Amino acid sequence: MKRLLSDAGVRLALGLLWLLQWLPLPVLAALGTWLGHLLYRVAGSRRRIALRNLELCFPNKPQAEREAIAREHFGWMARSLLERAMLWWSPPERIKNLIQIEGDIELAEREFQTSGRPTMWLCPHFVGLDVAGASILLCQKRPGASIYQAQSNAIIDVLMKKGRLRFGNAEIFPRSDSVKPLFRAIKQEGRGFFNLPDMDFGERDAAFVPFFGVPAATLLAPSRMARALNMVVQPVIAETLPKGQGWRIRFLPALPHFPTADAVADTARLNQFIEGEILKQPAQYLWVHKRFKTRPAGEPGFY
């Protein structure tokens, strides 16, 4: 009975989310900002995680400034959750018209056609992450691929997969499966790989490299995968614009001299790059994730 009630609540919430797709984006943005202010007050656990992350990354900032960044972050984060209504159900042309593209979005297609090299789109966890994925599928020719983390709720799991696959030129591979089908899709089909490099998945296949001066368990996979498949690595940065003006997605130049034979040095370099992008829009980075959850042996936990 508890499971049935839970599923009914999820369906109700998703039904309300579906209705939001009809709102103008400025109205949806205002609603998300209001919801973020509310969540900052009531979501105590996530608020504490965000504040702890900001304390670790910006120890020299006054506490009041870190709290202001956290409050603003909750507004951007709540907006991103509500804006998924558009990403999952609105007509593709409406979404495309709200995305401002900057930089070389044709790099993946050009590289594969001229040299046969696939591209890794490196996308850090800013709140507009899902829009960055949509922009890749809507605004350029090269088909995409990504790794998918199954959701604990089956209803949400199905909906998220449908939402991410609805534009028809993407394939997603479960994180729990072998990487061989993913590698084959990249190498043989030339699919670009949408890679999220900045989550803490534990010590396996990771190294402790500095993130704002704090050792952070960081996956070595971007470097190793790019080297194994001879990939071009292009950062893609998402920015949510104020007052519902849409989103700006920046396709930056491919990282020079990357990867190298030193995966740990490459991984530290990626963290440095991400730090620089965070400093440009600190409130839009995903501070509610336990970025420093895994600690080196013998060190106490931060959370």
Description:
With 303 residues, the chain is α/β, with parallel strands linked by helices. The protein has a domain at 94-284. The protein has helices at 2-20, 25-42, 44-57, 63-89, 92-97, 107-115, 129-139, 154-165, 180-189, 221-228, 263-280; strands spanning 99-103, 119-122, 144-148, 170-174, 192-195, 206-211, 214-219, 232-240, 247-251. Helix 1 (2-20) crosses helix 4 (63-89). It is globular, with a radius of gyration of 19 Å. The two termini are 34 Å apart. The relative contact order is 0.16. The model has no long low-confidence stretch (mean pLDDT 93).
Key descriptive features of the protein:
303 residues; alpha/beta; seven-stranded mixed β-sheet; two-stranded antiparallel sheet; 11 helices; 9 strands; globular
